[in-house]
Design a protein that fits this description.
The complex is a heterodimer of chains A (124) and B (379).
Chain A lengths: L1 H4 L7 E5 L4 E3 L16 E3 L3 E10 L9 E8 L3 E7 L13 E6 L6 E6 L10
Antiparallel strand pairs in A: 1-2, 1-3, 4-5, 4-7, 5-6, 7-8
Chain B lengths: L4 E7 L10 H15 L10 E4 L7 H6 L9 E4 L5 H14 L5 E9 L15 H4 L4 H16 L3 H15 L13 H6 L2 E3 L2 E2 L8 E9 L11 E10 L13 H14 L8 E3 L5 H10 L8 H6 L10 E2 L4 H5 L3 H17 L12 E8 L9 E9 L1
Parallel strand pairs in B: 2-3, 2-4, 9-10, 9-11
Antiparallel strand pairs in B: 1-7, 1-8, 4-7, 5-6, 8-12, 11-12
The chains are: A mainly beta (124), B alpha/beta (379).
Chain lengths: 124, 379
C-alpha cells in the first residue's frame, strides 16, 4: 500500500451551480433546481471527512475485501470512494480525514485515510 | 368515491425454481387469485403486471398463457417496488371507475440471472466506485449504531424473528429457524452485515384481484384498500442521515393521512426488510416505535406475533424471499390473509388494519428510487 499511501493528492473536479450554491460530484451539466445548464467546473477540497464506512467482502468489481466510505467535502458534497490504505487491523471511523486521488489511467477517484485523524475515543 | 377492495389473493411458494418459467409462476398465482375471489377468467377486465428484470411485455407474455390477451395490459418497473406500483395503478383505475375488476400480478425469476449479487446499474457512479446493495445497508447499519448505540447483534435479531415467522409459512423460501449466533457467524458480506441479515434472491409470483363491485362490500373475506401511495426518492448530493429514510417517511405520512389512521391503529405491517437494518429503520419510520428504539422494539418482542405491532408475519423479504416484482404484491397477500384470519399459526388476533411498505432500488444521490405504502382494512 506504500505506493497508494504516498500517491499525490488529486482534487476531484465536479461542477457548481452559482445561482443555487450547490456543488455536484461527479459533475453534472444541468442544475436540477434552476435548470441552469453548462455548470462551471469546480474542484473539491483535496480532503474530506468520513461520514460512514464499511468493508465489502462479497462483490465482483474490485478484489475483496476493500473498504468503502462516504466522505463529506466543503460545499456539502458527499462522495463514495474506496479507501486503499485500509487494513483489517486499521479500521476506519466516522470523523477521520480522507485525501482524494485519481487513477493515472482511468481517472477514477479513490481515497486514502489518515489513520491518525481518528476522533477522540475512537483511536484505531 | 368508494374504496376498491381486494377480493382475491394468492401466492406461489418462493424459492429457486430453475425448471419453471416466469410465465408459469405468474399464471399459477393469477389463476389462484381469481379463483380465491370466486370469479372467472372473463370477469377480469385488465391486467396490471409488476416485474423488474424480465424485459419487456411481461404482462402480455402472462396474459396470453391464461386467456387474458386482448385486454388492457400495463407493465410496471420500479425495481423492488414494481409489484406495489402495479397495485397502486390498479387501485387508481378501479377507484376512478375505468374498470370494475382487475388482476394485479407481481412476478420475478431471479434464478434466470445466475447467482450472486444482483446486477444493479453498471453506469451508476457509486456502483462504479464499488458500492453493492449489502454495502449500502451496511453503512445504514453503521450509521444507526453510531447514532443510537448498541451492537450489530441487536439489529441482527430481526433475522431470528424473520426465520421464526417463516418456519410457520409453507410458502417461504427459508423455513429453518436460526439462532442469533448462527446469524452472526454466517459469512460476513459487508461489515457488520452477515449473509443471514440480507434477503435471498428468489423466484415467485403473487396476485390480487381488485374490484369496485358493490357486492364485494358484503364479502367478509374482502379487504378494503384505504390508501395507496407511491413516491420517488429525492436527490441529495450532500450530507444525509442514512438511518432516516426520508422517502418512506413522506410516503407513510401521506398514506396514513389519506386512510385516516395513525400508527396506533396498525395491527400488522409488512415492511421492506431487504436487510435486517431495513426493518429496524422502518419500525421507526412507520411510527411503530420512537426513533432510535427500533432495535429494542425487536429485542423486546414488540414486532413479534404477540407484540404491540406484528411485523413481517410471513417471514418478510429476509426469509419468505425477495422476488423483486412479486414482493409488493405478496406483502398485500399476507395482509389480506391476516385481515381474513386465515394465516393459521402466524395469525395476529383480531387484525383490523394492515400496512404494506416496500422500497425500490437506489441510484446515485437517491437512497431509494421508489417507496410504496398501502393501507388495508378488514371488511
Amino acid at each position: 500500500m506504500t505506493s497508494t499511501e504516498t500517491a499525490a493528492p488529486v482534487a476531484l473536479t465536479g461542477t457548481h451551480c452559482v445561482a443555487c450554491d450547490r456543488g455536484f460530484y461527479p459533475g453534472r451539466d444541468l442544475c436540477p433546481t434552476c435548470w441552469a445548464s453548462d455548470l462551471p467546473a469546480h474542484d473539491l477540497a483535496p480532503t474530506g471527512t468520513v461520514a460512514t464506512w464499511t468493508v465489502v467482502r462479497m462483490g465482483n468489481l474490485f478484489e475483496v475485501p476493500y473498504a468503502l466510505c462516504y466522505a463529506d467535502f466543503d460545499g456539502d458534497v458527499r462522495v463514495l470512494g474506496r479507501v486503499v490504505n485500509w487494513a483489517e487491523d486499521r479500521p476506519l471511523a466516522p470523523g477521520m480525514t480522507v485525501t482524494t486521488h485519481a487513477d493515472a489511467e482511468t481517472g477514477d477517484h479513490f481515497f486514502t485515510v489518515d489513520h491518525a485523524s481518528a476522533p477522540t475515543g475512537q483511536e484505531a | 368515491m368508494t374504496n376498491p377492495r381486494i377480493v382475491g389473493a394468492a401466492t406461489t411458494p418462493f424459492g429457486k425454481f430453475r425448471d419453471r418459467t416466469l410465465e408459469s409462476l405468474a399464471v399459477e398465482a393469477g389463476i389462484a387469485a381469481v379463483r380465491d375471489a370466486g370469479l372467472q377468467r372473463t370477469d377480469v377486465e385488465a391486467l396490471f403486471c409488476g416485474n423488474a428484470y424480465a424485459g419487456s411485455l411481461v404482462g402480455q407474455r402472462i396474459g396470453k398463457e391464461m386467456g387474458l390477451d386482448g385486454l388492457p395490459c400495463y407493465n410496471f418497473e420500479n425495481a423492488c417496488a414494481s409489484g406495489a406500483s402495479a397495485l397502486a395503478q390498479a387501485y387508481r383505475s378501479v377507484r376512478n371507475g375505468e374498470f370494475t375488476t382487475v388482476l394485479v400480478i407481481g412476478v420475478e425469476q431471479l434464478s434466470a440471472l445466475g447467482g450472486g449479487l444482483l446486477p444493479i446499474g453498471p453506469g451508476d457512479p457509486e456502483i462504479k466506485a464499488g458500492l453493492t446493495m449489502p454495502a449500502a445497508y451496511a453503512m445504514r447499519t453503521e450509521s444507526w449504531l453510531s447514532r443510537f448505540g448498541g451492537k450489530p447483534e441487536d439489529i441482527a435479531q430481526v433475522s431470528v424473528k424473520s426465520r421464526d415467522a417463516a418456519s410457520r409459512n409453507p410458502n417461504a423460501q427459508y423455513r429453518t429457524p436460526v439462532t442469533i449466533d448462527e446469524v452472526m457467524e454466517s459469512r460476513l458480506v459487508a461489515d457488520p452485515i452477515t449473509l443471514l441479515q440480507m434477503c435471498p434472491n428468489a423466484d415467485g409470483a403473487a396476485a390480487v384481484v381488485v374490484t369496485s363491485d358493490p357486492a364485494a362490500a358484503g364479502d367478509a373475506r374482502s379487504a378494503e384498500v384505504l390508501s395507496s401511495v407511491v413516491l420517488s426518492g429525492q436527490f441529495f448530493q450532500g450530507r444525509r442521515d442514512m438511518a432516516w429514510p426520508d422517502i418512506t417517511l413522506r410516503a407513510v405520512e401521506q398514506a396514513y393521512a389519506s386512510a385516516g389512521i395513525t400508527a396506533k391503529d396498525v395491527d400488522v405491517a409488512e415492511v421492506h426488510d431487504a436487510a435486517a437494518i431495513g426493518e429496524v429503520m422502518y419500525y421507526e419510520a412507520l411510527g411503530l416505535c420512537e426513533r432510535g428504539e427500533g432495535a429494542s422494539f425487536v429485542l423486546s418482542g414488540q414486532s413479534a406475533l404477540a407484540g404491540r405491532t406484528a411485523v413481517n408475519t410471513g417471514g418478510g423479504l429476509l426469509s419468505r424471499g425477495h422476488p423483486l416484482g412479486a414482493t409488493g404484491v405478496v406483502q398485500v397477500v399476507e395482509l389480506v390473509a391476516q385481515l381474513r384470519g386465515e394465516t393459521g399459526a402466524n395469525q395476529v388476533d383480531g387484525a383490523k388494519v394492515g400496512v404494506a411498505h416496500c422500497t425500490g432500488g437506489g441510484i446515485w444521490g437517491v437512497d431509494n428510487g421508489a417507496a410504496a405504502v398501502h393501507v388495508l382494512a378488514r371488511s
